[in-house]
Every structure is written in structure tokens, then in C-alpha cells.
Amino acid sequence: MKKYQILILWFFIPTIISCDHEFLELKPRNILLEEQVWNDEEMIKSLLANYYNRLPVNYSIYQDERYFAELDEAVAVQSPESGMNLNDNNIVSYPFDRWSLWNYSAIRDINLAIEGIEQYSTVLAPDVKAQYFSEFRFLRAFWYFELVKRMGGVPIVTEQLIYDYSGEPGSLAKPRSSEAAVYDFIAEECDEIKDVIGNTGSQTRANKFTVLALKSRAMLYAASIAKYNSQMGTPLTLPGGEVGIPAGRAPEYYSLALEAAEEIIQNGNYALYDVNPDRSENFYEAIVVKANNPEVIMAMDFNVVKRHNFAYHHIPRPMREDNLSSSGISPSLNLVEAFEYLDGTPGALKGVGTGANTAQSQADWIFYDKPEDVFTDKDPRLFGSVVVPGASFKGVEVDLQAGVYVWNNASQKYDRIESSTLGSKYDDGKTLTGLGGPVRAGSEVSNTGFYLKKYIDPTPMSSARGIGSQVWWIKFRYAEVLLNAAEAAFELGGENVAKALLYINQVRERAGFPPNSVDAASLTIEKIRNERRVEFAFEDHRLWDVKRWRTAHVLWDGSDSSSDANLFALYGYRIVHPGHPNDGKYVYDKIVAPNLRAPRFFQLGNYYSKIAQSELDNNPLIIPNPYH
Amino acid sequence: MYAFLIQLILCTVLLANTGRAQRKTIEDVKVTLQLKEQSLSQFFELVEAKTDFKFTYNHDLVNLNQLVTVEEKNMSLYKVLEAVSKQTLLHFIQVNENIHVKSSNNKGGKHVQIAQRVDVTVSGTVNDATGEPIPGVTVSLQGSAIGTATDVNGQYSLTVPEGSTLVFSFIGFETQTIAVGGKSIIDVVLVEDIGSLDEVIVVGYGEQKKANLTGAISNIDSDNLTRSVSSTVSGALIGKLAGVNTRLPDGRPGGSAQLQIRNMGTPLFIIDGIPATESDFNNIDLNNIESISVLKDASAAIYGLRAGNGVVLVTTKMGEENMRPQINVNAYYGLQGFTKFPRQANSYQYMRGHAESAQNLNQTTPITQEELDRWKEGKKTPEGDFRSMDYLDYMINPAPQIFINPSATGGSDQFKYHFSLGHLDQQATIDSYYFKRSSLQANLEAKLAKGLRVGTQVSGRVELRHQAGVPGDDYSAVFNVITKMWPHERPYANDNPNYINSTHSINVNPATYVESITGWNDLYNRVGRANFYAVYDFDFGLQVKGTYSYQYLGWTDDVNEFTYDAYSYDPETDTYNVVKGGGNQNPIRRTSRRNIEDNFSQVQLSYNKTLEDHAFSAVIAYEQSTSENRYLFARTVPQTNHLPIMLFSELNDFSDEWTEQARGSYIGRFNYDYKGKYLLELLGRNDGSYLYSPHSRWGFFPGGSIGWRISDEPFFSNAFGEVFSDLKLRVSYGKTGSEIGVSPYGYLGGFNWAQGNYMFDGSLVTGIQPRGLPVTNLSWVTSESTNLGIDVSFLQNRLFGQFDVFQRKVTGIPAARYDVLLPSEVGYTLPNENLNSEAILGIEGMVTYRGMARGLSYSLGLNGTLARGKSLHTYKPRFGNSYDEYRNSIEERWQDVTWGYHVVGQFKSQEEIDDYPINIDGQGNRSLLPGDLIYEDLNGDKIINEYDEQPIAYRITQSTPYLNVGINSAFTYKGFSLSMDFSGATMQSFFLDREMKIPFYGDGNSPAWLLEDRWHREDPFDPNSRWIEGTFPAIRKNLSSHSNFNRRNDFYRVNMTYLRLRNFEIGYTYDLKGINGYSGGSTAKIYTNITNLFSIDNVGNRYGIDPEIADFGGRVYPQTRVFNFGLIVSL
């Protein structure tokens, strides 16, 4: 018995004292180690996938959709699922840190990859290695372009900055480069990599022509900043050129932009999408059709696994396929009127009242037979970008009618009657308010009288949240290359103007305008700029264009009376005037969009976004931007 | 200390002797004794130790000090006794397991006898201390099922074998054990059980007598716990323990109260010695809990690295040796209804609000005065339907809950057990929503050999949370119905229940909240745990115990959301038309499965020794635990509503997770006391966690406490002994840890897998992303706890008080070392290090009084806890200017202070706004109207901006209040019992927000009070009519960006204060003795229990909300008021 007890003790005591703790060393199941990456092409591709996926956007169909309704293209509609909110329409002024970006962790990650490939990729063939090397550099150039267009000159960091824990990180601090130097850096990088990068024919990974498209866009931005910044009353400058580019460099940059664009035009094997004889549909398809689309240079693509909910969030109310969402973006009348008439005249709609509900306000009315008649002879791209009253989309006619105007014999004018109930009937049994509104206060229904069409997926059920949309988001397309070339050529002047005419007319002709709809006499810089506005509506060009042209603060001056700073709606009504020839006809009022709470107000301090205090604290060499 | 202990153990082993055999008579039992001239009492002790026999004798008649000499090897006890009898002239009679010792006068005859079993009839009266007879006292034969109970006159009669022992027990009184001897009449005076100091309390890795406790430990036993009807354990604890802060912010079936010890955060839960989750803790059937101990101070240090927020120890029930089988059935039925929920506006209020909103926003409205008049009338007319729906009444209806728990507890001399089954069926107040839980517990322990016991605790439960398959968090969706449906909308088209009406948002139409329409959601939690242990008790006070535990958790969440159509009614044609996009065309079938396997093993050595006035005890242990957590998620878009089987062809999302944890620990505790007067405890734990890099993985957490029982000092007891029955001072200090601010594998570099993805030429490539800098210099957060306490009893322990002052200082809170400013352009930030510190300071106390008067026994208790966090030091704080320091410093400041704007008033007129010099809205006050809020311009710069913020509220996070109080009372008189438990709290802030602040928030409805008590113009259609004052600002529809709403301000702040009758119970206990077939001690109790009968608070009447909710919009399942009717049968 004694032995038995001693045995028990001799079993337990050593167990307690001598336990090994190997079991505390756990192997992670979601972490790859350095040595598992650099010599495995699949893993390098995975790294690229991560970096492509992280490229910044201001707004897009997969991220930050609410900013579609931040400028003058659209007004936000209360639509909780999409994140769109009425309060998005109460931008008293753009905050100075709006559009701010200082994401050096992305730069660090790319530099880490560039160095990792150089140092550790021992088994990759030299040409394969060079290709990845160039692709990472393209991504870095893209990032620097995104940084410079928001912040002005930024420190150019091209290698990992390693802190040695010495407590003295000062040597890692770099000052801001000049704005011009960053653009120059982008141009140099593009030149060095364009012939090595490979990926020929890819519309999702960068190839030679993607690199050139980036260069052309960047050079055009640099050129217009050089030219128009100096034309401002008080140019935006900093002593070291951190913002502002000397006016003298404008021609050089315009030439580089034109040169890069023309290289694509001549050698790129791209063409404008031109398949559908219906010009409106053709333009719509140019964006959403992915198969054999010769226009797209680079896009962020989606499939059944990687998908987005843009259609779910923004499909017009009458054709929504889910019960929860829709209609988050309500395009503005400002944009609709920017589309010219086919004869080249300005696009303001005709016979539209002011909605004041007085006899005088009704005097301007044209009584249209059909709702869509007010848009007769407009640029077909309008109908490819925006759903207007009377149009059809996805096989459904869009019922857009705000109410009725009923003749009042006593006051000798029409009395306005509206309803907030969609699809409601007036006493005469006909429509009072359309199934698609517009209504002045309502969720998930247009409040401007229009719906978004561009980028909304035509595939059945793609607006159901469980299925989702696979439409891609285009980062570069051929039409931009043509318009970059046109703008650069026009700005360069002289014999280049002929090129400008050639390129802009290609774009207009594809849109549905007659051949040579612009000639040397009618071509103005405003014409070119308006062409970009309508061609690239909802493609994240508008903000950057008006910034580089230095027109943003004039356009969006925060004034209550401004027709640009305010956003407008088009409310259509059916006339109820039994026995009268006008009975049953349609009239329109142009009113300030009811959801709009404040006019757009872009201040000089918005041209270059605010560098956060923490960045200034962390690096004393960084100087703040003007007006901050 | 280790060496000493081991040496002590080994030396003693050699002295130990062989064990006892189990035999029937003293003739069969052989013993070996080496006694030379030792006292008789030592002889008795030795024999009792070596055999199962007990000597019984009368001290007055038997001289225990006389010396005996017995030197026998393997001799029968009979012979030994004969030898002793010769030396002492004593007479021994074996009666069953007892040996009666008698002084013998006759020198001849047999001095040692084995008596035949003789039955005697014993009767008597049981009284309390005041001489009142006590009816219903259980009188039972120790170690058997034989028993009876006293009648109304306190009298009993029972026939038992001679020499047996009777046990007298009654709730509220100390159990008495009396040997029958030769007596035929035994009158008993039962003494009230007043929290005796001999009570044994479960502490970390052992038990201690309450008198010897030196740590701050609260304890609650089974009776006080089960007095409340609660589906969760935390719910039953509300208001009952000092030092425990609670809040029940969401009362949904199966939901549990938040529980924090001294506001320190979520504690560590230990069930039967094994770490468990909060969910495991909450879902134990209350009837299985023997006791709960809460370690609040240094006493938690024995749980080391994860005990920084205190420890809750749960011990489940177990039978006792030789305990007759006790069969209990506990069942109740209850009806539940909401305590409070904001009533929404009716159609008239809604329409009028819209008209006013348009007027206030300068918009046109289609609404006319004529329409408003009709809405006010609220009738269905040929012109239209002007009625209102009250969706609160529509959705929320009283719902039943049913509970039943049968259990059996008992034991023989070889075997102890507790078996229990339980089932709870709690319907929500919403159709199609419910919670069900079935559980079992089987605790067994068997003696295998002398000193060797093995046991197991097996428990299992299945929880089902069932909901209708509506999108989103399905309970909150229900509240969307109430708050978002427009009151003039009808659920069914033309009120025809065959056609779901196409409402402004079909997702909030309650007609769809039916399982057959919208689908279903079943969330199952299946948990099985088995603990196995073996204990070996050495003769000399050493115990060795080995434990292994395995727990498997299977969690599945299955959702099936159906498609359905919505209709509009066309009165002209009397047809119902499908509205395109009106219903739900988005079918979803989704499953999530999580499996967690926990392994735990432990070896533990404990040693107890008393040497005259010195008592020692020590524990050392090693334990290790591992956990593996696997998760799978899949979603399909099914083609049919009718079948739940998922197909690959319909697959639309899929993901997988796989994580592990591992920890190892060395544990030690040492206790010493001198005469029970000077008490010392030292404890510590060395913990290793997988979270930290191999170089800094292990941490040591020591603790210690001392106590001084002043009342045992002669100088004190001589002077104050009549007043104080007990007075003890306690001081403790200890360290614990928290695994916060560190992520698994933070010490590794490399790349994270599956970070984003991208389409390369038509095929999807999974992304990897470089990880940040490896975190190698970050360690756990250390909590240092200091506690000063006093325990005091007066009036023979009737009045007991316990008071503590405490501080928990937390050091090493992760923060960045920012005297090293790394340029942002390097692209990474310095890893956090253990730099900052904070503290929680507080006091707590409890007082209980137990009394008895004329058959009425009662207890009253009051407890309270005030605990508040304070930041101490941050690492080298830097402030750009004095404002920055004022606004952002947290040095030496109370924590969780909420900043916001102070409202100094409301504008009375447009003129006042026009003349007001301070720019309130950032737009020159253009957006302001009379009734709008005037913010204080704190810095006098004439514009309201972030520089005008000031502290305006206490902690507002979903957390526990700083001050909690509980008032407990219980009364019994004859068979009647009454108990009331109040709980209350204050020092917590709440902000009205969203639905309760912004009219027509999210295009929905609003609480009626928000639209009624508002500033408005006399005529909503005449912009020139005069303003009429109200409490809330003028209505603007859904405009949260307005200056009234977009700045957090004290106009909408409420400091919630409440005292609620959490638990009220009245019951009657019948004695079943009279009924044939029932032995004594069988009772049946019927009772009515009401949860949340009433609440005295500052929000219920004003805003229609329960004071414990945390959702600022009020859109949450509030606590319920429950009427329960129950029956407890004990056989």
C-alpha cells in the first residue's frame, strides 16, 4: 500500500514539474511566410491582385457610391441599403479634408514587393521577373497619380523605409516633392516600363497602352494645372512648387499627353464600341458590355463570385427586382441639360415652367403630346446615361409623372396636384403620380425626375441582392484617349487643331452626331470640356476635370442663385382640362431639387486637400497646403 | 516552498498505514494497533480512522483520559475491545456501525456485545428559539430514506433502529443531528441559520470557511438564486450581490444580462473548475447550481492572465454521502409582455407632422387641411381610408413561457449523484419568434477504494433561437415594423388577408413577418461537456486530483428567406394586382456552422494540516487548455421556397475559418491561520499564452491577503463582545492579467491570405497582403488590485455587513510610443507597446438582517456597488496647446466621459434668431426656426464648432451603470413565503437619438410624443401664423444633418435612474406527509412570481422606454414583465 501511494505521487509530481510547452506553438492557418511567396508566380499574382484591388477611387460602382451624388451630376435619395442619405444633400461646403489621401502603406507594400522580387525571386525567368517588376511599378505610378491629383506634390518614396528602433527616425523624413516633379516621375516610370510590362491584350491588367493611357491622363492634368493655375486671380502656389506648376511647362505637358494618346490611337488596336444601330443603346452598351468590347483599355472586372450591388442600390424604382433598395442616385437636370441637341445647339430643355404655380410661371409651357417629347433631338448619349420620362429600361416603361395640373376656371390658371403615393390615380382614373415618381419627399424613388442608367446592369435579377451585378468598372477607355488627345491638341493650337477636330468628331459621331459636327469655327475649349462632361458622366472624371481647369470654385460658388451650384429637378405633369385641346398633354417645371439642402460650395482650399495634422506632426518637413 | 512541501509529503507517507476493509461486525474487522500507554480517546480516534465504526459515549460517564495499551497485529476488533474492556472496565456494544461505550458495573458477563437490530420509537416537539413550535420540519434517519415531518404543533414520531442518528432540517434553520441513544423522547430547539461563519465558500482551487476568508469574495447559494424566475443565470443574479454591476439592455428570449464585476469588464467564468464562456454560464439550468462565488480582488490572481476582470466560479450540485434520494420537480408557466415601448404616432399626427415639416422646410405639400380633418376623424369613407394602424399592438402580444425541471439528488456510502433534466420554452411576444432550451446535468462520484474517488460531471444543452426569416438582425427588424410603417398603411391590400399589401417598404410590412411568408431562421447551440476526475486522499491530509474535461460546441445558424409577392388593390375592378418589385424576389438559403472543441487537463495537489493553533493548507497545480474553432459559411440562391437543401449549382457565397488557442499554467496557493484569528493567504499563477511571442510568453501573477479577526481578541471581546459577534479586517493585493490589444500571430511577419481579390483576364485571383511590422514587444495588460474590507456581525450574527473599498490599477495598456514620430511616409506605424494605465475605483457594501418573530422568519438585504474607471497616465502625453490638452487629455481623468454641446435654451421667436450674434448652424442661422436649440458658445468665438464641446454625460456605451443597488427581502410564515428583490441603478447616460430624436427618421414614423410636444405654427398651412411652444424643436422630416440633431447635446441626454421590483414571489408550501405513500419531508410548493412588476424611473412615462435599454433609438426588445405560476414538488 505504501508503494501504491508513492507511485501516485511519483506520477503526479513529475507531471506537474516537467511539462513541455510545444503545444503553445500554434501554426497560423491564414498567414504565408516570406519564403513561400517570392518564388511562386501564383503568390506574386496574388500580391498583384491585392494591389490592383486596393487602387483608390473617388467614387465607383463598388465603393463610395454615395459620392456619385456629391457634385453636379446627381442628388442623393434616401435609400438606406445603398448608404445614400438625404443628409448627403446638405453639403454646406466641401470639407478641406474631402478627397484627402496620404496612403503610404500602399506605397510601402508596393516597394516591398519591388524589392522582394529583385532580391528573393531566384527561380523566375528574367523576362517574367521584369514583367512583374514593371507591373508593380505601374501600380506605384498609379498611386502617385492618385496622390498628386488630390494633394499636390508628395514625397516620392521608391524604396522601403526601414526604422531601426534607434529612437532617431529623422533620417527617414522626406520633404514634399514639387507637384511637377511627381508628374515627371509618373512620366518617367511610364516610359521605362511600357515596353517591358507585357500583358498584351489584357483589359484587366496593365499593358503598354494602359501605361500610356495613365501617362496621357497624368500629363493632361499637369498641363492644365500649369496653364490654368497661373490664370487664377491668386494662383495656388507654395514656395517649393509643392503645389502649382509653372505656366511655362504647359506646352511640354500637353505635348506629352498628346504623344502618349496618339501612340495608343495609332498602335493600340482599340476602337470605339460601335455595334448597336440604336445610338443610345450603343452608348449604354459601350460601358456595360464586356465581351469583345474594343473600347475598354483597363477595367476592374467582376464575376459571379466577385460582384457588387450597384444595380441593387440604384436601379430605377419601377423595375427593381428586390424589395429593399433602389434609386439611390437621382441624376440632376443640370447634367441632362448639358447634353446638346443634335444640331450642336446648347441642351437647355424647351418650354419648361418654373413651378411657381402662377399663371405667369405657366406661360412658358409647351404642351407636349407625350412625356418624352421634351427630349426630342437630344444627344442620344443622354438616353444611354440617364432614364428620362417616357423611356424604357429593361423592357419596362418608366412611369415618371409628378402629378397633374388641373384647369381652374376661376383663377384662369392650372392648379397643381401631387401625391406622395407612387402609382396613385387622379379622380379621372388616370395617373396622378407615376410608379417611378418623382416625389418631393420619399425613399427609394427619384426626386429629380430622372434615374441613373449608366452602369446599371441589364442582366435579369442582377439587382436582387442575393445575385448581384457583374458589370465592370472602367478605369481607362478609348474615348478618353481620344478626348485627351483632342484637348491637348486644341490647347497646343496651331496645326494641332486639325487633330483636335479629328478626335472629337470621332467621339461625337459614335454618339450619334452627324459627321464633322464640330468644325474649326465652332470648336472651343468649352465645347471640349462639355464633351468630357457628357461622355464621362458618372465615370469619376467630373471632379478632377473641373479642378484641373480651375473652374470648380466658379461653378460651385455656394450661391443660392447660381444655376450651377444648385441642382435642379424636372417635374412633369399631365394636364387635366376636359374639353380643351391641351387635356391629356404633358408639361414640365424646372425646380430646385427638393432633396437639395445647400448649394454646392467649392472653396479655394478644396483644390488641394488638407494634409492631416498627424502627417504634419510626424514629419516636420511636410508643409501644409494653401488655405489650411 | 515546493521542496518543503514535497519533503513533508514523502516523510508522512512512510508513517501511513494500511486502509480499512469494509466488514460487517467487530468480529470480522481486523486491526493492527501499536498503542503504549495512550489515552482512551486516542484509541477511539485510531479505531475510527481505521474502521468505519464510530464510538458513542457520554462524556460525563466515560473517562477519556485513562490510559490503555494495545499492541496487536491483525487482530479482530472484538478481541481488541475485550482487551480494552479489561483495562478500563468499560462495556462495548456494537449497534450497526456504532459502538456504544458504557461504564460497566457488573464485572462478569460479556463486556463486548454485538446487538441485534432493535427498533425504538422516538417522538418529540421541535421548537424555535422563542419556543414556538415549527411545523414541517423534516426528521429523517441519517443515511436512509426513512423520515417524517413535524405536524402543525411541531410534533413528530418516528420508529428507527436503536443507536441511529436523527437529522432535523428545515429551511432557514441550521440542521441538527442527534444520536438517539436510548432516548424515546427527543425535543429539539432549532437555531436559525444566519449565514453561519462555518459556511464553506468555494474559492479558486478549493474551498474555505467563510470565517477565514481574506479576499473580497461574494457568494450566493442555490436558494437565493432560484428565488428568481429567470431563463439565464445572469438574470437571476441581478441586484443580489455586492460588487456585481448588471444591465439588461435587450430582453429578447434567450438574451442575457450584461454582468461585470466592479465595472471591470466581462469576467472570467469557471464552471466546476473549468474555464467556460459567458454563454455557457448563462445557460446553466439554475436548479443545477449549488453556489456561485465571485472573486473580486487579489483572490482572482490564482486565475492569472485572464482574470483581470474578476472571476465568477460556479459549482454544480452533487449529492451527499448517505443522503436519501431527493426528487424535485420544478415547473412554471408564465405570461410575458413588454415593460415599455414608445407608442408611435397615429395617422393624424403623422400627416400633420408632414405638413408641418414641409412648412418648416419651405416646401410644398400635397396635404390639405381638409385631409387633416379626415385623418383626425380616422374613419374609412368612400373618399378614402383614413384609419390608423397601431403597429405596436399589432406586433406585440402577451406570450407564454413554460419551464420544467425534474432532478434527483442523493447518495450511498459508495456513491453520490445529482441528475437533472430541464426544458424551457420561451415564446417571444412576437409570433414566430421563440427560444427553447433543453439541458441535462449528471454529476456522479464513486469510491473505488479506500481514499480513491472518481467522478464525472456531464452536462449538455441544446438551445434553439427561432425567428422568422426576415432580412437583417431579425429581432430589430420587428421593431422596424413598429417604427417605420406609416400608420395609414395597411398590412393587407384591402384588408384581405390573402394579399400582402405593397407598402412603402415591403420589408417592414408586418404581414410578411409570418414564417410561411418570409421564411425561417433557426439558430442552434448544442453544447456537450464531460469532466472526469480522480481524487486520491492520503491519510495525512494530502489530496491528489487529476481532471480532464472535453467540451464540444456545435453552433448552427440556418436561414431560409422566401420570395413572395405584394399586391395593390384596384377598387374599380375589385382586383388585386401584383406590384412589380413590391414583394421579395431575393431568396436566400444560408447556413453557418461553428464547431469549437475545448480540451482541458489539470493535476492538483492539496494539503491541509492543523498543528494545534496553526492551520496550514496549500495547493499546487498544473493545467493546460487548448481550443480549436472551425467555422463554415455557405449561401445559396434557392429556386424554391419549399425545400431547404442547398445545392452547389445555387451556391453564391462560401467561406471558412480555422483558429486555435492554447494556454498552460502553474498554480499555487498557501493559507495559514493562527487560532483562526490571524489569517494569511498567498497565491500565484504562472501563465503562458499562445498569443505572445515565444520569448515573452510566460507571466507570473501573484496575490496575497491578510485578515484579522479582531472579535477573537480578548481585549476586544471583553469590551465589545456583547455587541459584535464578529469583526474582521481584510487587506488584499494582487496582480492579474488581460489578453487585450494583441491579435493572434501578431509576432509573425509575412502575408495575410485572402485579402481582397481581383479579376485577371476573366479569372479570379485571391489576394495576399503584407502584414505590418511584427509585434514582439507587446505583452499582456496587468491589473493590480488592492482591496480593503471589513466584515462585521451583530446580534448573534443576525445582522451582517460587509464593506469594501477597492482600486484596480491597470498598467501596460497598449499604445504607440509617440515620442518617436515615424514619418507617415514610411507606410507603417510603430507597433503598440504596453504604455498607458488606468484605474477603477469604487466602494461596495452589503448589509443583511435575518430575524424571526412569532413564527415569521424574514431576511432583509441591501447591497450597492459604485465603481468608476479613471485614466491614470498615458505615455508622454503631448498637446499642441492648452485647448488640445483640455479636450483630448485623459491624464488623471474619469473615463468614458462623453463630450458634447451644452444647450442653453431654445429660440422663442424668429426675431431672436435674426438678432442672435452666434452662428449656430454654420449657415448664419438661416436654417433655424423658433424652438431650435441654442448651443453654448463656450469659447466665445461667435460660431458653434467642435471647440465648444464640453463634458455632458457619463458613460454611454452599452455597458453597466456606475452605481448599482439591490434590495432583497424574504419572509416565511408557516407555509407561506414572500420574497421581493429590487434592483436599481444610476450614473449612466442615455441619449435620445435616431427614431427618438429626428422626426420621421429614415422615412418612417416617430414616437407620438415627439410629434405632439413640438414647436409648431398654429396653422400648418399658413406660414405666417404664430408659433406655439413645445418641448421638442419644430419638425423637419428625416433631417439628421440639421444643427439641432447633428451635434450630440445635453438636450437629448437622460441620466437614467431607476429602482425596479425585479422579482416578486408569493408562495405556499404544503406538507405531503398526510397523503398516503409519501414519507416525511415531502412538500409541494405553489407560487406566483412576477418579474418587473413595476419600475420607478425617469424615462418610462416620459419616453415610453425601459430604463435599462441601450439602443438610443429605443428600437430594442425591452425587458418583459412576466407573470409566472409555478409548482415545486420535493419528494
How would you describe the overall organization of this protein?
By secondary structure, chain A is an alpha+beta fold. Helices cover 34% and strands 9% of the residues of chain A. Chain A has helices spanning 2-17, 41-54, 104-120, 126-151, 179-193, 208-229, 250-267, 279-288, 310-314, 333-338, 381-385, 478-492, 496-511, 525-535, 542-548, 552-555, 613-618; strands at 31-32, 74-76, 296-300, 329-331, 352-353, 386-387, 392-393, 396-397, 403-408, 413-418, 451-452, 473-477, 568-576, 586-592. In chain A, the strands form five sheets. Chain A has a five-stranded mixed sheet with strand order 5-14-13-9-10, with no helix packed on it. In chain A, strands 2-4 form a two-stranded antiparallel ribbon. A two-stranded antiparallel sheet of chain A has the order 3-12. In chain A, strand 9 and strand 10 (413-418) form a beta hairpin. In chain A, helix 2 runs parallel beside helix 4 and helix 12 (478-492) runs antiparallel to helix 13 (496-511). In chain A, 53% of the residues are buried. The mean pLDDT of chain A is 93. Chain B has 1131 residues and is mainly beta. In chain B, 11% of the residues lie in helices and 46% in strands. Chain B is built from 16 helices and 60 strands. Chain B has a 22-stranded antiparallel beta barrel. In chain B, strand 24 (380-381) and strand 25 form a beta hairpin. In chain B, helix 7 runs antiparallel to helix 8. The two termini of chain B are 50 Å apart. In chain B, 45% of the residues are buried. Residues 1-23 of chain B have low confidence and may be disordered. At the A-B interface, helix 1, strand 1, helix 2, helix 3 and strand 10 of A face helix 1, helix 7, strand 34, strand 35 and strand 36 of B. Strand 1 (31-32) of chain A pairs antiparallel with strand 40 (751-760) of chain B, so a sheet runs across the interface.
